[in-house]
Predict the 3D structure of the following.
Amino acid sequence: MGVIKTKKISKDENKEISISKALFEKAYRLMHTAMNMAVTYEENKAICSKYVHSTSRGHEAIQLAAAFSLEAHDFAAPYYRDESILLGIGMQPYELMLQLMAKKDDPFSGGRTYYGHPSLKREGFPTIPHQSSATGMQAIPATGMAHGIHYLESQNLLKGDKKPVVLCSLGDGSVTEGEVSEAFQMAVLHKLPIVYLIQDNDWGISATGAEMRAMDAYDFVSGFTGMERMRVDGSDFVDSYEGLQKAFNYVRENRAPILVHAKVPLLGHHTSGVRKEWYRGDFDEHLKSDPIPRLRKELKKRGWKDAQLVKIEDEALTFVQAEYARAINADDPDITTFMDHEFAPTPIITEKGHRKPRGAEKVVMVDAALHAVDDILKNHPESLFYGQDVGGALGGVFREAATLAQKYGDNRIFNTPIQEAYIVGSTAGMSAIGAKAIVEIQFADYIWPGINQLVEELSKSCYLSQGQFPIQSLIRVPIGAYGGGGPYHSGSIESTLLNIRGIKVVYPSNAADMKGLMKAAFHDPNPVVMLEHKGLYWSKVPGTEGAKTFEPDSDYIIPLGKSRIDQEASEEAIANGESCVVITYGMGVYWTRAASKAFKGQVEILDLRTLNPLDWEGVIAAVKRHNKALVLTEEPLMNSFAESLAGRISKECFQILDAPVMTYGAANLPAIPLNVELEKQMLPTAEKVEVVLSELLNY
């Protein structure tokens, strides 16, 4: 075992780590349990390989050492080969086999996700939030957990006197992922209490370490100043256990990160779907490092008798066979539950507070948002706000966080590096810890590096964990064109977001809605993306004065999924069949207000406010009132949310429509040009909307 010498850790380097006889026996028994599980799966591959799985064969020693280092108040992010970690913390083979076969009583997901993908919230066990199969993607949520612990400790909000540690387990090949580097950067920048365990078996799938990397994780992480690092022999249980005990002790005492690099053999297939005999020629070499005979030899050296060891081996085999027999006969899931747990129930189901309290003054949208966040921070000490440039020096490029850092301190309001993936993905870890993150992506055009985390980690967690781990995450995203912003500061992205199931998307068009929806988004236990139009922030764009409203009181809150009639048509126009509804959101409200002046009393404006969940009942009721509808968007129209909504309306309301459901949006171009006159040509305007309304009303 090698440890970089520092004043913090060298004093403990030679400290004796004792291993009791009982722990040795437990390790040997569980190694044979894991090995027999792998053998059983292979012998019964017609059944066990129906669903793709990996096993821990060859990795048992380091994984058990990690499991034995975890405590019940800790958190873990294992990867898909870590079944021995699960056995080591106390999970039973039967439970794991239920997941292998996608059975009803799979304790993690109820048959929804792969073997070795735990979601565990059980008394007396470390907490293991859901994570995806995406390679290395667990590094950011795991670091977010450590960041959440760090934050709660800074605010004296952690219950009890325990010092939780996060274990993040990764294969060495995954360290080449850029998102892993983002996690390392934040871990050292904020001194986060996390152990990164790197299991290096020299293989990806069919790619060798030499093909994939110029250096292993131990050498790579030397560039992250402040990251302790250690090498252990991952096939030697004693070396692994001693090393990980020192690593965990270091993190518990110093509240700072460490990376442990463990060299291990790969003795099984990459997965059941990619078999070792197809491509590997080094199997005999890897067998020389099999941790099971190595531990057997160590136990004999320490006085264990063959008869004692054979008894343990036989008992492990018998146990696994019995567990398999139980699992194979277990019930399959009830197919009627397939829709359950898309979202966790929200407590916000009714509008509360006063939208226009006595003595209220008018406020612009950006200030309404600022005041909403201020209220949240004041009343919820577990809340924090971070993103690019939101800290004290600037308070956001739109001043949307002005004064907050000065008011609440740099631990609660802080700048991040330019790391959209970390900004988004860390909120999953924060949520698991109990910290409630409000984060900001500086411009919608720069959200794309964060989409991987949004899709793979945040959106799927509630569904795949059977509701155990919904992710409370409020992601603020300034959006839209506002006159000369150009191709990287003007884009609209709602259709892309709406193709991500398991997240909510909110799009307010005025200050009152901004404040009420922001509060609801914060209290929602699910991921919410709050789209905030930059052109409406200050009501400086001509025609957007209406975005400035009287400020609601601090108790005002609007349930997500409720549209609002922004402008009514006259009863006379409706009765005469001379009216229509424009279904829109954001800037579309103000283009329609201006355009409708040419058609007095004929145009209702339905402001959706929330795009998912959609107020479908409100939409259908509006269309049935008027029998004519236009769906208006700022996005390029082709294949957009607006076109999709129009298609749904056409299907539902076909028999009562007096005209085709019309749609209008931006030109189908890949970017918004910088020149303001070119921008006007691409985007909708009030004048263009007026032409469409005329066509619709006169159809």
About this structure: Residues 21-43 form the longest helix (23 residues). Residues 564-698 form a domain with the Rossmann fold fold (CATH 3.40.50.920). Residues 1-12 have pLDDT under 50 and may be disordered. Residues 153 and 159 are 9 Å apart (CA to CA).
